[in-house]
Amino acid sequence: MTKKHQTLGEYIIENQNSFRYSSGELSKLINALRLAAKVVNHEVNKAGLVDILGAAGEVNVQGENQQKLDVMANNIFIETLRNREIVCGIASEEEDDFITINSSDDNHQNKYVVLIDPLDGSSNIDVNVSVGTIFSIYRRVTPIGSPVQIEDFLQPGRNQVAAGYIVYGTSTMIVYTTGDGVNGFTLNPAIGTFYLSNPNMQFPENGKIYSVNEGNYIHFPQGVKDYIKYCQKEEGDRPYTSRYIGSLVSDFHRNMIKGGIYMYPKSSIAEEGKLRLLYECNPIAFLAEQAGGKASNGFTPIMDITPTELHQRVPFFCGSKNMVEKVEEFIQKANQ
Ligand code: AHG
Ligand code: MN
Ligand code: MN
């Protein structure tokens, strides 16, 4: 049950028994993410004051420049989870390979793995625009008691036990699901407590916002170009409004509240698009479906895709149900 103004801590305790697998372990894990979120929030908030803006001088495995805050957020989430010994493994957008978490007695009794995009929208940090963190939680598939393996991470999104994001915006929020709807909690920074502010979040079935990097229009597949022209056409409730922040978390958050579609298609310069299936698309797809929306690669629901590699990319269309179905229609028609 959700009660307005309940704290996240109270909510986690009260709802522990309604989790699909209730042993208290998942609650502890979400508590650890809550703590790490507060620490990262503190760092992000003072970004303009201390020397943490700009590039860290390293390039991650995907060839992208790492920002100092990318590295900092990555370390905070990993160390918070490692120190609590509540997961058996972590995969991060910022790490080349997955990390095995050894428990102090070395018997690997933890059953969850976490996959994380520690700082999403990091190119927005230097200009004081909202960024986020995205997380995804699975039960391991290899036997408890042995070190975690790659197949524990390469599971279809359907297997997710929980997923969510933190948006460090005009206010900081945690929005997450454990498969029983989506709830949003807003941080009161004065006392460092998250309060339930957005119970049972729902995508409007229809929306009037489309979010896409239109600078890449020329490189998009024909079906996506046709859909963009459809959004811009004067007919019925169109033209729609274009809104693109460039932080998936923030664009998704706005669209879930107001109704809209987010698109990162494949293109002639990025064969599989840009977004990462495991750290970005699967968790956002789980939230979208739990909120009555949809997420697709144009042909297949995102969560039905079986991943083959950790840093796999995938074309992504996500948002209000009718809008996602419409873009699928255009893509599939142009593909015939
Ligand atoms: P990240 O900062 O984790 O690398 O992710 C950035 C992603 C996503 O958040 C955003 O919507 C998209 O990249 C923006 O890409 P473009 O600049 O190509 O539009
Ligand atoms: Mn990202
Ligand atoms: Mn990132």
TrEMBL record:
CDD domains: FBPase
EC numbers: 3.1.3.11
Binding-site residues, substrate: 120-123, 213, 244, 274
Organism lineage string: Bacteria, Pseudomonadati, Bacteroidota, Flavobacteriia, Flavobacteriales
A Pfam family per the record: FBPase_C
Keyword Cell inner membrane (UniProt): no
Record keyword Magnesium present: yes
Domain of life: Bacteria
Pathway given in the UniProt record: Carbohydrate biosynthesis; Calvin cycle
The organism of origin for this protein: Neptunitalea lumnitzerae
PROSITE patterns: FBPASE (PS00124)
Requisite cofactors: Mg(2+)
Stretches of the chain forming a coiled coil according to its record: none
Catalyzed reactions per annotation: beta-D-fructose 1,6-bisphosphate + H2O = beta-D-fructose 6-phosphate + phosphate
Domain Fructose-1-6-bisphosphatase class I N-terminal: 7-198
Enzyme class: hydrolase
Protein name: Fructose-1,6-bisphosphatase class 1
Alphabetic keyword roster: Carbohydrate metabolism, Cytoplasm, Hydrolase, Magnesium, Metal-binding
Family, as annotated: Belongs to the FBPase class 1 family.
Residues binding Mg(2+) 2, per UniProt: 117, 120, 280
Cofactor, how bound (note): Binds 2 magnesium ions per subunit.
Subunit and partners: Homotetramer.
Compartments in which it is found: Cytoplasm
Binding site for Mg(2+) 1: 93, 117, 119
Main location: cytoplasm
Ranges where the Fructose-1-6-bisphosphatase class 1 C-terminal domain occurs: 204-331
